[in-house]
Amino acid sequence: MTKTRRLEDLWSHIHCLGVLADTGSYTAAARRLQISKASVSQRIVELEQAAGVPLVRRTTRSVGLTEAGQSLVDQTATAFLRIEEGFSAVRNLSEGPRGVLSVTAPVALGRQIIAPLIPGFLKEFPDVRIQLDLSDHLASLATEGFDLAIRHVAGVPDTHVASVICETRSVLAGAPEYLSANGTPRTPMDLAGHNCLHYPRRSGGATWSFESRAGDKRVAVPVRGSFTANNSEVLREVAAGGLGIALLPDFSANQALRSGELVEVLPGWLVVGDYAERLYAVRPYTPRVPLTVSSFVSYLRQAIPASAGLGGPGKDAS
């Protein structure tokens, strides 16, 4: 005979069900709750045993809630949100940021810009632990359990809140020995005679678009080259090796430009429509911003332009 569980013993189980409903997978729920996947599964089983009805509908490809499970989540979600907000408000009265902050960022940007800044942040806020996931996959923050995404994109979904960290720009660059041997382009059309190293796009053939700094001319140039890569660090290194001219985001190019390893090409023209022009911090919408999130975003907005030589701090956007 199954022992009847006291309702107060099941609060964490009900919360676990709500997180599972929000994330859509046991793995993502375990990551958000900072427990093992097996623990999530065990809590759901115990909750179903206590409730006496199935709460989760499991298939080989997905996890969903039964009608009873969804009803339980709907009726308790507001209460758990109020508990979270109330506790955060009380804790913030006397404490600084603390707890685990789960962050996702693109590989090149994360390695070159975000990772070097993390030691300084953690020294300033020793009660915070950061979990950094580097992936060029555009993660769903809600379903994959991330608190924050750092993204170099043209725009963000209306369902999320975004803060502009700084402005960025695209840079054409080549190694001095390549330009000495092959000539330096004077106009965008001169690129047709050069080995152009580019980031592959789904649209097929590569076309680089330019606008004069005066804004009175716009040119689109089909380009060809012997090498493509879906990582700007790799493109930078191959260009530095003297193979050709690469189109890079400034956060990948700046250090090599400062050292003379690369030289900027066509500085009188603006590259448009290839890489994004802003760096964003993106978070799921919540009525109250967690202090760890707001502190980390503020830190990045001050530190990134200063350390990487990118554009100045931006404004909040939603």
Automatic annotation (TrEMBL):
HTH lysR-type domain location: 9-66
Signal peptide (from-to): none
Single GO term (MF): sequence-specific DNA binding
InterPro entries: LysR-type_TF_proteobact-type, LysR_HTH_N, LysR_subst-bd, WH-like_DNA-bd_sf, WH_DNA-bd_sf
Keywords: DNA-binding, Transcription, Transcription regulation
A GO BP entry: DNA-templated transcription
Coiled coil: none
CDD domains: PBP2_CrgA_like
Family the entry assigns: Belongs to the LysR transcriptional regulatory family.
Protein name per the record: HTH-type transcriptional regulator DmlR
